[in-house]
Amino acid sequence: MLVWKAYSRMIDALAFAPDGRTLALAGCYLACRTIDATTGQRLWTQESASAFGLSLAFAPIGDVLCRAGGVSVRGAADGVERLNTGRWCQSFALAPDGRTAFVADGGYEDLLRRYDLTTGAPTGEVELESGAINRVAVAPDGKLVALVGCKRFYLLTVDTLEVVASIPERALSSGAFALAFTPDGNSLVYTAGRTLFVWDVATACESNRVSLESKYFMDAAFTSDGRRLITVSKEGTARVWDTATWECERSFAWNVGPLRAVAVAPDGTRAAVAGDAGRVVVWDLEL
């Protein structure tokens, strides 16, 4: 296990590079900082005018996507911006092929836009009744996109942005949220307050739910085999859930303050968490 003081303020998003060697982080007035995932050495930093980061992604070719006004596409090695698209990005998700981004655009409007990352041009949009969209995720097969706002959860088709499912949830107004598809795309999870909802994608129906007695869920990430889900919450605990039974197998508390972000390396060997104190914890997964 390694612990680094990676930033002086809150970190609310993490992402591993495709090869697992680099870790990107974002947060309060920080669009992106990349660090060596083994040594913690800082590689490059891009500041932001926003008090939150929320979204980060690595494209398959290694470029980093972060929030810098719109969606900023930057070279992983040097941080040089290649493209900036979108009007005012609240959050975003990258399609698996790395060529399309789904952006909660226009600030706090209930608007989702699809952008071509080759040209930077919008290729579709849909206005929803979600409230401010806090999380967006694209299914591994690239056919569905999910989002959670401060009012509703939505599941939409990628090609037409047609609504497949829409569920209101009062606890989403708390501002606590997590959203992730399983690696096989058959299920997804999202959270509202202290409750984690498990959805079957084929039937677009809830299949299970898990509740905490402590503080809210803040983020979630599946292991690469889909057999475990790691969640983090405000009391500073990371929990590992068995996705067959939805029982908590183990929990970790490193005394690094409230946690807001979690990521799993693509090869499934390591995970990372971070939060309010700006510290990053990386540890080996026992799978």
Question: Can you characterise this structure?
Answer:
The chain is an all-beta fold and 287 residues long. The chain is 0% helix and 55% strand. It is built from no helices and 28 strands. It has strands at residues 2-5, 11-16, 22-27, 30-36, 42-47, 56-58, 64-68, 70-74, 81-85, 91-94, 100-104, 111-116, 122-127, 133-138, 144-149, 152-157, 163-168, 179-181, 187-192, 195-200, 205-211, 217-222, 228-233, 237-242, 247-253, 259-264, 270-275, 279-284. It has a four-stranded antiparallel β-sheet, with no helix packed on it. It has a four-stranded antiparallel β-sheet with strand order 2-3-4-5, with no helix packed on it. The chain has a four-stranded antiparallel β-sheet with strand order 6-7-8-9, with no helix packed on it. The mean pLDDT is 94.
Could you give the topology of this structure?
Blueprint: E1 2-5, E2 11-16, E3 22-27, E4 30-36, E5 42-47, E6 56-58, E7 64-68, E8 70-74, E9 81-85, E10 91-94, E11 100-104, E12 111-116, E13 122-127, E14 133-138, E15 144-149, E16 152-157, E17 163-168, E18 179-181, E19 187-192, E20 195-200, E21 205-211, E22 217-222, E23 228-233, E24 237-242, E25 247-253, E26 259-264, E27 270-275, E28 279-284
Summary, kept brief:
The protein has 287 residues and is mainly beta. The protein is built from no helices and 28 strands.
